[in-house]
Amino acid sequence: MIKQVNLLISGRVQGVFYRASAAENARSLKLVGFARNLPDGKVEIVAQGEEAYIARLVKWCHSGPPGAQVDDVAITVEEPQQNFVTFSVR
User: Fold this and answer.
1) Active site at which residues (predicted)?
2) pLDDT tens sequence across 32-79
3) Cα 25 off chain centre by
4) What does the alpha-carbon distance between residue 3 and residue 24 come to, in Å, rounded to a whole number?
5) Sheet of strand 69-78: strand arrangement
6) What value does the mean pLDDT take over residues 8-33?
7) How far apart, in whole angstroms, are the C-alpha atoms of residue 52 and residue 27?
8) Predicted TM-score (pTM) above 0.85
9) Which side of the chain, N or C, has fewer Cβ within a 10 Å radius?
């Protein structure tokens, strides 16, 4: 069953290749959606796919790439709102 998760990641997550690394990880898990920087310093990730693969992405988000320091990952699970065809960095 396809699920959607919205993640807000806070900490030192901008300028450390967090979005690019998240996108690479998500693509390897066959997830679609996007990652983008927010003006408040957080990274937002919207991911759609199989629940087990989303869980693996969420686990990765708690540590992120080398150089990141994740303070919090706020998670909202929703029904898919739109159809993404790939995982992009915005």
Assistant:
1) 19, 37
2) 999 999 999 999 999 999 999 999 999 999 999 999 999 999 999 998
3) 9
4) 19
5) 69-78, 2-12, 43-50, 32-37, 87-89
6) 98
7) 14
8) yes
9) N
| Contact partners, residue 77, CB within 8 Å, separation at least 6 | 3, 4, 5, 6
Domains defined along the chain, listed by start: 2-81 (3.30.70.100)
CA distance readout (Å), 45 to 7, 74, 86:
5, 10, 13
Q: Which residues are catalytic?
A: 19, 37
Angle between helices 18-28 and 51-61 (to 10 degrees): 160
Separation between Cα atoms, residue 45 and residue 18, nearest integer Å: 10
For the chain, state the CA radius of gyration. 12
pLDDT at 17 over 80: yes
Would you say residue 86 has pLDDT above 80? Answer: yes
Number of neighbouring beta carbons within 10 Å of residue 13: 26
